[in-house]
Design a protein that fits this description.
- The chain is mostly helical.
- Helices cover 73% and strands 0% of the residues.
- The longest helix is centred in the middle third of the chain and has 36 residues.
- The N and C termini lie far apart (57 Å).
């Protein structure tokens, strides 16, 4: 079963015809989980194929658009789920249980990264001070002769301000906002994923939305 899961996690091919022909594809998550818990070699592979696309999208947003890290964290989350699958009791749906693992995996990574960032802050600052302007220019090549410099600048500035505004949110508010607004999840689903009451989720979402609206008010069209 582990080898089957590993093949799926390593991108064992998205083959629509094969998926249509696979009799397991019509099974509900509950049945697939039961089969996987009894060491069925194909059931967990189907669960990975069923949820890997949305899982990657969630990780991508939580990693601030770092595709390589998102792929690594998506794989790590599926492996965590695989190792914990026998402990899954079905008190929630499989996908909310798994997405909770995924969110916690991403948050763990953020915390690890921030610890390393604190350690290396002085090193990076010193390195920047010793880098001459020519080397700095080489790090940022010309985006292209046909591009509009002001459009590119404005787009980059907006992206930076959105990223900064999201980073300024408390951790739980940021996660809830991303799950609701970027991924269209229901309040009930988000509550199960983050382990909070639905009323608490609504409160966090309200505060995050108003904070971001104020932070980005210069970009709102009159």
């Amino acid at each position: 079963m582990y080898n089957s899961a590993a093949r799926a996690l390593n991108g064992a091919g998205h083959n629509p015809k094969a998926e249509r022909d696979d009799p397991f594809m019509s099974l509900e998550d509950k049945e697939l989980v039961a089969r996987a818990q009894h060491d069925d070699p194909s059931a967990f592979e189907i669960l990975v194929r069923r949820y890997q696309e949305k899982a990657y999208a969630i990780a991508y947003n939580m990693c601030s658009g770092d595709s390589e890290e998102a792929q690594e964290l998506t794989q790590e989350a599926f492996l965590r789920a695989f190792r914990s699958l026998k402990n899954f009791r079905g008190k929630s749906s499989f996908y909310t249980w798994f997405y909770r693992i995924l969110v916690n995996t991403c948050l763990d990574s953020r915390r690890r990264r921030k610890r390393w960032e604190r350690i290396f802050t002085f090193w990076r600052r010193d390195r920047r001070e010793r880098t001459d302007s020519k080397e700095m220019d080489e790090d940022y090549p010309d985006p292209g002769a046909n591009s509009n410099p002001m459009t590119a600048l404005n787009g980059k500035q907006l992206a930076q301000e959105i990223s900064q505004a999201l980073e300024a949110l408390p951790e739980k508010q940021r996660v809830i906002f991303q799950l609701k607004v970027l991924h269209g999840m229901k309040i009930r689903e988000i509550a199960q994923i983050v382990g909070s009451a639905e009323g608490t989720v609504k409160s966090h979402l309200f505060r995050a939305t108003h904070f971001l609206r104020d932070a980005l008010q210069d970009w709102v069209q009159p």
